[in-house]
Amino acid sequence: MAVLPIIEYPHTVLRRRAKRVRLIDRRVQRLADDMVETLRSARGVGLAANQVGALQRVIVIQLPDEAGARVYVNPKIVHREGYREVEEGCLSIPGYMARITRSLWIRAKGLDRRSGTFHFRADGLLAQALEHEIDHLNGILYIDHLKSHQKLVELEPEPDLRQAAAVAGWRPHVLAHDPPD
Ligand code: NI
After folding, report:
1. Distance of CA 92 from the midpoint of ligand 1 (Å)
2. Global pTM?
3. What is the DSSP string of the chain?
4. Which of 16, 88, 112, 147 has the greatest number of C-beta atoms within 10 Å?
C-alpha cells in the first residue's frame, strides 16, 4: 500500500467524470488500498479516485467511529430526502470549509470491493460523505453547492503551524468575515 499525492483544486482532473469500473481486478483493489492509506494519512473522512488522479468510480470512506474503511465501487445515489445544513471541507481544497446544504438522508447502491452489491439507507456523516464523494466522481466539488448566504471560510492553521508562521512574520487571516452560521 502507498500514500498517494492528493490532487488539489483547481486541477482539471477534479472536474472530469470518472468511468464506471467494469471489473474489480487487482489493479482496482490496489487503488482502493492506496486510497484508504492516503485517506488515513490525511485524517480525512472520504476520498474519491479523481483526487489521486484515477478516473475510476471508486470511493473510500473512513467514519471516525468505525475501525475499517468502507470501499465502494460504482456507487450511486438512488434517492435523496430532505435538506440540512452541514459543515464541509475537502482534502483537495485544504485550509477551507463552508456550511452547505446536503440531504437529510439518502439511499445508495453499488458494489463493494468483493463485487457484492450494496443497497442501503444512510443519514448523518455517512450520507454527507457519500454525497460529497459521489459528486467528486461526477466532477463536482462542494464549493459548487455554495449559495449566496454560504461563504467559504479560510481555516486558521493548526497551533504549531501558527507558531511557525509567527516566526516567519506571517499572520493567518479569515477570507470571509461572517461566520458560517
Ligand atoms: Ni472532497
Report:
1. 6
2. 0.86
3. --PPPPP-TT-GGGGSPPBPPS---HHHHHHHHHHHHHHHHHT-SEEEGGGGT--BSEEEE--TT-SSPEEEEEEEEEEEE--EEEEE--TTSTTEEEEEEE-SEEEEEEE-TTS-EEEEEEEHHHHHHHHHHHHHHTT--GGGG--TT---EEPPPPHHHHHHHHHTT-----S--S---
4. 88
Tell how far the Cα of 104 is from the centroid of ligand 1, in angstroms.
Answer: 19
Determine the Cα–Cα distance for residues 37 and 5; give it in Å rounded to an integer: 11
CA of 167 to the centre of ligand 1 (A): 31
Superfamily assignment of 12-168 in CATH? Peptide deformylase (3.90.45.10)
Q: Which residues are identified as catalytic?
A: 133
Low-confidence ranges of the chain (pLDDT < 50): 165-166, 168-181
Span from the CA of 116 to the centroid of ligand 1 (angstroms): 25
Q: Residues 132-178: pLDDT tens digits?
A: 999 999 999 999 999 888 889 998 876 665 555 445 444 333 333 44
